[in-house]
Design brief:
408 residues; VC0802-like; 27% strand; 13 helices; homodimer; eight-stranded mixed sheet
Chain lengths: 408, 408
């Protein structure tokens, strides 16, 4: 008998029929003798509908009030789920974040969980109840309703699993696990049985949007056993996200190929090569509320250097404008940009102990005539920026080069 | 400067545009220096949509969970209203019933308010905020979310006005006040400037559905000054609901003509005239969850009597079946019924001191050839059951007979 937290995303509870299916699934787990805590998201589309109402009232709605309205989405789902469980013959009780209570800071619309009071939940579990807790929400110390931001239900589930020392936190979603890359690009992409937290973080931040990144950090920090599963299939073990040591010795060097289509590249040419220029260039970009992804500065010569970075494609035009002003001010040689680029990354903890991964990657791309425009590396990831038109080709080539289509 | 509670019904907040209008109206009151507490209902249709979702899950949903879902309707409106007030340059803060807190008993779906903690509201008012409190809801002593049942937002508003000793509780609705009768039946119907709580109770229970009856009882008990106003018109004083002593000496004898179309009549004939028969007849009706309205038992002769009562027309067939079984068991002479009847009532505190009202009423009806099937009277009301086809005629005739079309 185990204590399991099960999180169901918006598509898994999108209709009352799907909610009934979730209840049936929970009933099967319960019948095996497990204690179950269920954390649902809002029915898909509901959060957008609610925020749409707010935007009809105000272009810039008050964050405190936005949380009051947004939190109702999950509140509806918890009650419907509890009712559906009653129909399955289960005892079940629902709680909002404020009721449990999930104590957060007061950063409305993107609050952080500080503490979870497990007393009420433990009492209900002991009495045989399935406990249904609204994801995405909590309350601050003054009782104000808060939300955790988009994808926050994953974080709620992991935080509950950590607070209650659950044996496993299962994230049910519309895919059946984490893949070596997007199967729509590479049909041979293979579901991974395990992936480490660090790899998952790199995969998620690079565009494999299976799990909310904060929840993965949280799970890693509190050593919560996290599993991604499909809510539409009854079979399958999904993908288990583990701490590195849990992986077998025979781990693959590369776990997956991630990519991001929305990357735009900007370069400021011939700026003086002296301390402080990175801040002079990126300060105005940050002031314009533009997030920067990759940053590259190469060795200078003749006292000047070129400085490049990438931004989300939607921010490209604004970023270019800001950069032109900076170039004038810094007396730079000029500015260049390209919004027809993309980023492809190889991710794997194995590369720490296996040199030569980078050259294997560059060689594979070069053999197909794909020019590499920028390179950035971390401990467990190598990213390249290339022309957008080569994206699918590059992902397929790298997937094959690292043998990812083969079973472990 | 006064403290005013303003309640806005579902049609008044049915769209974001109407919510903006409510905010503008509140801003005008605030500009006059008043302290304002606003109590909105859910956007019209929303509560039905939510309960519809619950019914898709379960034919008989758990009341505790039903309240969790139903309470979200008002939670959405309070946040939207607060945002709309911010757009008008007001300070405003929203609270759910549980946050304020509105303490209720644990009778889910029809809880009763026990106490309201006014500390948070008073602090916000002192700081210049408009305080927006969700109607229809509260929380029990264990923090479970409760709702007060249909029309409960009126009760929330009155209870807040009582707890905070407000100068006035204004109920904004889609009519501009209480009328002498339904203007759709009698075009000459006149808006009343004042009506007493007792008259209002009789009018409301008889089918003039302007105010929820429990809120009127509550207002009467706690001497809350209650006013019904239109939320779609900027002019007008509405109708003030007063304790009797406030009315001028020149009060009209009859304040209004109420009617109820959904009345069905049943009679059990020739039952033994002995103690306990009322219970023997009505016990099984109550057990079948059928509400009884009028009850008439006339003097018996030859040791037997006839016993009549009315029920809502929707319950007629079931009630008739139950009554037939009772008749067999009691060895009664038979059973009769008619579901083509209606009830018309004259209401007015003045009739206490003016004898002859009943005969004037019967005379007016008789002159039009309208046969009276049943009569029931209270201190301030006379009701008759007549054939349904005469309803409009009877209402017009009585409205004219008591001179209601004339201004006070």
């Amino acid at each position: 008998m185990a204590l399991i937290v099960q999180k169901f995303g918006g598509t898994s509870v999108a209709t009352t029929d799907r909610i009934k299916n979730v209840a049936k699934r929970v009933a099967r787990w319960k019948a095996q003798g497990h204690d179950i805590i269920v954390v649902p998201s809002a029915m898909s589309g509901e959060t957008n509908r609610l925020i749409g109402l707010a935007r009809e009232i105000s272009a810039n709605p008050d964050p405190r009030e936005l949380d009051v309205i947004a939190s109702t989405g999950e509140q509806v789902t918890i009650a419907l789920l509890a009712m559906a469980m009653h129909e399955e013959g289960l005892q079940a009780k629902s709680y909002t974040g404020a009721q449990v209570r999930v104590l957060t800071d007061s950063t409305f619309t993107k609050a952080r969980i500080l503490q979870i009071d497990d007393e009420r939940i433990r009492r209900d579990l002991a009495e045989g109840h399935v406990v249904v807790v609204a994801g995405f929400q909590g309350a601050d110390e003054n009782g104000n309703i808060t939300t955790l931001g988009r994808g926050g239900s994953d974080t709620s589930a992991v935080a509950l699993a950590a607070a209650l020392k659950a044996d496993e936190c299962q994230i049910y979603t519309d895919v059946d696990g984490v893949y070596t890359t997007d199967p729509r690009v590479v049909p041979e992409a293979r579901k991974l049985d395990t992936i480490t937290f660090e790899e998952m973080l790199e995969m998620a931040s690079l565009g494999s949007k299976v799990l909310q990144i904060r929840s993965v950090e949280f799970a890693g920090k509190y050593k919560v056993k996290l599993r991604v599963l499909s809510s539409f299939e009854d079979e399958g073990e999904g993908t288990l996200i583990t701490v590195e040591e849990d992986k077998t010795m025979e781990q693959p060097i590369i776990s997956g190929i991630a990519f991001n289509r929305d990357e735009a590249k900007l370069t400021i040419l011939g700026v003086p090569d002296r301390p402080g220029i990175a801040y002079q260039i990126l300060g105005p970009i940050a002031d314009a509320n533009i997030d920067v992804d990759m940053i590259i500065q190469n060795v200078g010569h003749d006292g000047s250097t070129d400085f490049s970075f990438t931004v989300n494609r939607a921010d490209y035009n604004r970023a270019l404008e800001v950069l032109k002003e900076t170039a004038t001010r810094m007396n730079a040689r000029g500015v260049a940009g390209d919004n027809k680029t993309c980023k492809v990354s190889a991710v794997g903890v194995g590369m720490r102990s296996h040199p030569g991964i980078a050259s294997k990657m560059f060689n594979a791309l070069g053999a197909e005539g794909i020019n590499i425009q920028m390179i950035s590396t971390s401990e467990i990831k190598i990213s390249v920026v290339i022309e957008e038109k080569y994206l699918e080709l590059a992902v397929r080539v790298l997937h094959k080069a690292f043998g990812l289509e083969k079973a472990d």
